[in-house]
Design a protein that fits this description.
alpha+beta
Length: 229
């Protein structure tokens, strides 16, 4: 139980700086330039989120998606502003956790047009996005002496989406408060554009990268593509 609590805290601090989830659309399109939001787009975004039935294996539970405070790190300043500007375009799946220590979150944006979706995803490719991701990892182990954090880009090219970007991170020697006393957590954060929509997935898993991240991404991309037809 304590291991699960540690993992949730780490993932939620990391997710907000990554996937699904923090971009600089305001730099490109500007808040005032955004067209009026269509309620049907919000419904499309919600319908495109992952469901518990999409997850492989057993032992999964879900809880309402919970936001963390934005980082005050300078490298996150632009992405924090972007999240605020694009908030009306977003839908969140529940936060999923299983008894083996894995965690999955999914966020979907449906923008009024392709141009805005492109600008939103492009911000993930700016140097500051990786810096912000790394800062999220660092913060998540700041109160754990001996724990380490390392983030890097993740190649997501060659898939069925129009575009994509990803990050990966390892949190080493994270205390569990139980047995074993420490665990290594592996985080993957990916975001994909499908037309005017963006779907982001963040997974966390002890011992190794979550093995079904690619399958979940494929499912999420296909669902978004179908709903945007």
């Amino acid at each position: 139980m304590k291991k699960t609590c540690v993992r949730k805290t780490l993932v939620r601090k990391t997710v907000r700086a990554s996937a699904l989830v923090a971009m600089a659309a305001t730099m490109v399109i500007g808040t005032s330039a955004m067209p009026a939001f269509a309620a049907s787009d919000k419904q499309l975004a919600k319908a495109s989120t992952l469901q518990e039935s999409d997850l492989s294996g057993t032992g999964w539970s879900s809880s309402p998606h919970k936001e963390n405070k934005d980082s005050t790190q300078p490298s996150c300043k632009v992405t924090n502003a972007a999240k605020k500007a694009a908030k009306k375009f977003v839908a969140h799946a529940p936060d999923f956790d299983n008894s083996d220590g894995a965690s999955v979150t999914n966020t979907v944006y449906v923008f009024p047009n392709v141009k805005q979706a492109r600008a939103y995803l492009a911000a993930f490719k700016l140097p500051g996005a990786l810096e912000c991701f790394q800062k999220g990892l660092d913060d998540s182990v700041a109160s754990s002496p001996g724990a380490t954090a390392a983030g890097a880009d993740l190649d997501v090219s060659g898939g069925p989406a129009d575009d994509g970007v990803g990050f990966q991170g390892t949190l080493g020697n994270v205390p569990t408060g139980s047995t074993p006393p420490t665990v290594d957590l592996y985080v993957q954060a990916v975001a994909f554009r499908v037309g005017r929509g963006v779907t982001g997935i963040t997974t966390s898993n002890p011992g190794a990268a979550y093995p079904s991240t690619v399958d979940l991404a494929t499912t999420a991309i296909a669902r978004l593509k179908k709903n945007l037809k």
